[in-house]
Amino acid sequence: MKKCLMMMLALVALTACNNGKGGDDSAAVDVKVNTTEIKGNYVYDIGDLCYATVEYSVEWPESVEGINLDSLQAFLLEAAFDTAGVDVNTAMRGVADRFVVNYKGKPTTSLTLEQVKKMRDSKDDLCDEYFPSLVFTVDCEEYDSVRNLIEVKVTESIDTDNGLAAGMGFYEYTYYYDCERQCRLTLADVVADEKAMLDIVKKKALGMDEDMCVMEELVNDLKALPATFILDDYDLVFTFNKYEIACAAAGNIDIKLSSLEIENLLTPLGKKFLCTFVQNEAMNKEVTDRMNDYIAKCLHYDKTTAANTNAQLFLTSDYIEEYDECDKLYEDEGMSWINFDPWIDAQDYDEVKFEVKQVMVKNKDKAMVVLNVTNYGKTNTKWVKMKRENGLMKIDDFETSGTSMRTMMQNVINKN
Asked: What is the pTM of this model?
């Protein structure tokens, strides 16, 4: 199901370049995506009092300032669904029918979706089979006025009601529409050397904590990078859906690559999106002072001075919330969820030193610090992301053990 055609609906707003010709209005900062939300659900009779259900919610792009999407939609309805001259609802009905083809299901009017849900809630054993249920959404997430991109996210959740098979699949895909070129932004537009990038992704995946249940055989068998990717402020992120490189318990796995380590593998457009920073001396000083203040007050390795309990004053609320959630997950076991110091990537230390090497300002509210960390006489470099919260620049994420602290925490949470 992870290659289910339902994800292709996202392409209706994203694929088929218009010869690279973008109108002047497409670059305007106030571009708005006008959407119509389309919702629907279907119930299928698959025999022996068993029913399959499909629910969907689609933010269907109707217009974007400076861009005519009508021709794109018509073209892609035909390309993705082999259906010409139909509306999106008709196309979605065809896709919903394909979902139950393995169950030989037929549309039924004998039961409503609400009735089927009530049957499930009562846990009546109506048949030996399970109730397959697909819930999927297509969302126009946001317009990135700096990069001039529209982000579209597709999620598919496939569930069943028979114990161990419950929650059998959750898949997520991200696509970008390039407003300037009026076409889908592809991986080849961003990455110049996909083979070298794949090698880095494999190395990072195999280096993840063993608790993430990454399977070496699956990683080594990867022949290409995922077709979809996420452009963070400074990172290129690849998401591997359930079962692709890890056991089911691990859920989806994010591999985050900092622009600092992959800049030479990016195309000029990729560098423009990920490696463009602004010159701002005031911000540079503010971020440097803030980072040094955190180091002085909260990172103590002299074996006699306890870390300042006001560390939370320097961390974003999202960071604190995820860290606390990880702590609670392992609370009953009487152990910590992390078995090393993430700032020095080690359990043992000698004379530890931190030095702000460089500050890269993204905008007035976001910056990245390149930090030198010395332990046992060896100096390593790591990045620290900071963003403004309640008027103060705070640490939102930082590099640790070849990944990021936030990614590590989110993986722990998702696994549990």
From this structure: 0.74
